[in-house]
Design goal:
Layout (H helix, E strand, L loop, with lengths): L20 H4 L8 E3 L14 H8 L3 E9 L2 E2 L2 E2 L2 E8 L11 E2 H7 L7 H20 L14 E9 L5 E5 L3 H13 L16 E7 L2 E10 L4 E6 L5 E6 L3 E2 L3 H4 L6 E5 L2 E3 L5 H8 L3 E6 L8 E8 L5 E4 H6 L6 E3 L3 H8 L31 E10 L3 E6 L13 H35 L11 E6 L4 E10 L3 E6 L5 E5 L3 E3 L2 H4 L6 E5 L6 H9 L3 E11 L6 E10 L5 E5 L1
Parallel strand pairs: 1-5, 14-17, 27-29
Antiparallel strand pairs: 2-5, 3-4, 5-6, 7-8, 7-16, 8-14, 9-10, 9-13, 10-11, 11-12, 15-19, 16-17, 17-18, 20-21, 20-28, 21-27, 22-23, 22-26, 23-24, 24-25, 28-29, 29-30
Length: 567
């Protein structure tokens, strides 16, 4: 936290320098203020986009009224709650007009309508903030967090459905931790020792059985809730009499298992994730991050691999199959938000309570080598790539082929998931259609604005982002179709964040290289076809999860029979 600027960030240790006492004792001149009546946390209508808010508020003035000090902290009278009013950006108005920040955020749909609920949440947040000040949580700093993929061993699946995966590069450290825990002797804590939240201790479970635990909650009467950090996030209740001082070399080793959630699926009904863990324990896996986020668990696709690291099977497809049926797909942003960060894993994200989305969720489709699915083409890209939109059709298609039964069976494997996702996409399009017809026109647009665009050719309203603004037109890129177009400003409407964050239905694939002139190939793909067009996945890129496909379409042969041919 930059205490003189009031903003935070991630900084490498190499850029830290120790301050002299005279400089470190200087007063801080920025004040954290909770807005009275405002709620932007778990119960908010949506998660705020801080980049957008910063652009809206940059160079704005503010007036604070009716401020109340929440409590004295060790830093002095610091955290306040009050009514804050926004003054327009410099140069925009000749007269100063004020708008309540609460009204400003409410217009954007970020805050609670209930002032009492907001105040209660503010106090809870402040208590949590003070707790972290006294002993900040030891947040895991996984070395591979900036990579798009890594290989490892699936150690367990906890009761939230989160996978705990030990990266191959951490095997040495894991072995070291276990050896030290067995060889060292641990000194019990003094009777008057104050247990600190977020601190790591050695927990004496048995006569000679020690484990590293991280304290997350005081349950009173000398009992504390803790996390077994080397045992896959499992929560336990420990007594202060069972806690021991931990050696510095053990304390310095961060949590080694990476918490990963299977993007696009959730535990089915009352299923317990540990049931699936019993089946998959010690499996070799490859993790491919699906989206960037500073929060944990990592949102990813996970593939089972063989001994050589070659991808065998998509774990989400395996766990949603009729044979296992531990998980089910989800289809909307609301469902994603509901299942992504379970309260049981809140200790992982003590520093990232407000980390929100800045772009729509990626496609929810799961693929693996050998998958078949119907699709339409969204757009063509360079380097033999295209964006496709899968959709639901009945799998029992009638056509002539010796491989028909095999192909139909492959189509059936994805049928139910595609049916749910297609239904969700159509509902979203209906909602956007209603919004587009009822929202008023605007003429003040900026690059980066998220909008609805009326597509005359398709006669529908579609999500887009503005890439450029001219006198009476704008260049937009369609979120769900992945192509760019210049449209009139009169065709644009402002979109709400909850609609903007819904999963994208389109995703990028590489199609098997063709010989000759690509122009002829593109023209062939744009010709009318007998629906549906099909594709077969023939490979998955192990670094980014991108699929390579073969394209097929139906034709009527000389005998007036429907036949499937590869393009």
């Amino acid at each position: 936290l930059k205490v003189d600027e009031g903003c935070d960030g991630v900084v490498p240790l190499s850029r830290f320098y120790k301050l002299t006492r005279d400089i470190s004792s200087y007063s801080v001149h920025v004040f954290p203020v909770y807005l009275r009546g405002m709620l932007m946390m778990d119960n908010a209508k949506s998660e705020p986009d801080y980049g957008f808010l910063l652009s809206e508020l940059k160079n704005c003035g503010a007036i604070l009224k009716n401020a109340e000090l929440l409590e004295e902290t060790r830093f002095g009278p610091w955290v306040m709650e009050g009514d804050l009013y926004k003054i327009p950006k410099l140069g925009q108005h000749s007269q100063i007009t004020m708008e309540s920040f609460v009204n400003f955020y409410r217009r954007l749909g970020f805050i609670s309508e209930s002032v009492d609920a907001a105040h209660d949440q503010v106090m809870d947040n402040h208590a949590a903030y003070s707790q972290v000040q006294e002993g900040d949580f030891n947040i895991p700093s996984f070395q591979q967090q900036d990579l798009t993929s890594f290989e490892g061993i699936l150690q367990a699946i906890d009761n939230t459905g989160t996978l705990w995966i030990l990266p191959d590069e951490f095997h040495k450290e894991d072995k070291l931790v276990q050896e030290i825990l067995q060889k060292k002797t641990f000194e019990p804590l003094p009777a008057n020792h104050a247990i600190k939240f977020g601190e790591i201790y050695a927990w004496k479970k048995g006569s000679n059985d020690y484990h590293r635990v991280l304290i997350t909650k005081d349950k009173e009467h000398g009992l504390f809730q803790a996390v077994l950090i080397d045992h896959f996030g499992r929560e336990v209740v420990v007594s202060n009499r069972e806690l021991c001082r931990i050696h510095p070399e053990l304390k310095a080793i961060n949590i080694l298992c990476v918490p990963v959630q299977l993007y696009g699926v959730r535990l089915l009904g009352e299923s317990n994730g540990r049931e699936a863990g019993d089946v998959l324990i010690r499996s070799s896996v490859r993790v491919i991050k699906k989206m960037e986020s500073p929060r944990y668990p990592v949102q990813a696709e996970v593939f089972l691999t063989d001994r050589n690291g070659n991808i065998k099977e998509n774990l989400a497809l395996k766990l949603t199959s009729q044979k296992f049926r531990y998980y089910e797909v989800y289809t909307t942003y609301e469902e994603w938000k509901e299942v992504t960060f379970p309260p049981e894993l809140a200790w992982l994200n003590a520093r990232y309570k407000n980390a929100g989305l800045t772009k729509p969720l990626p496609s929810l489709i799961h693929l693996q080598e050998g998958s078949w699915l119907p699709f339409s083409i969204g757009s063509f890209l360079d380097n033999s790539k295209m964006n496709i939109l899968p959709y639901f059709v009945e799998s029992n298609i009638d056509f002539e082929s010796q491989l028909r039964n095999k192909i139909v069976k492959k189509l059936e494997a994805n049928e139910e998931n595609l049916k749910q996702m297609d239904k969700a996409f159509k509902k979203m399009k209906d909602d956007l259609e209603s919004l587009g017809r009822n929202l008023p026109e605007r003429d003040d647009w900026d690059v980066g604005d998220q909008v609805l665009v009326h597509c005359e050719e398709e006669d529908e309203w579609a999500r887009a982002r503005i890439n450029g603004v001219n006198a009476d037109t704008a260049v937009v890129s369609y979120i769900d179709y992945k192509y760019e177009e210049e449209v009139k400003l009169s065709k644009l409407r402002m979109i709400g964040w909850s609609q903007y964050w819904q999963p994208v239905h389109c995703f990028c694939v590489r199609y098997e290289a063709v010989t000759g002139d690509h122009t002829d190939f593109f023209e062939k793909l744009e010709e009318p076809v007998i629906e549906p067009r099909l594709c077969k996945v023939i490979g998955i890129d192990p670094t980014n999860g991108e699929a390579t496909i073969q394209l097929f379409e139906f034709i009527i042969d000389d005998k007036d029979k429907q036949t499937l041919v590869q393009l």
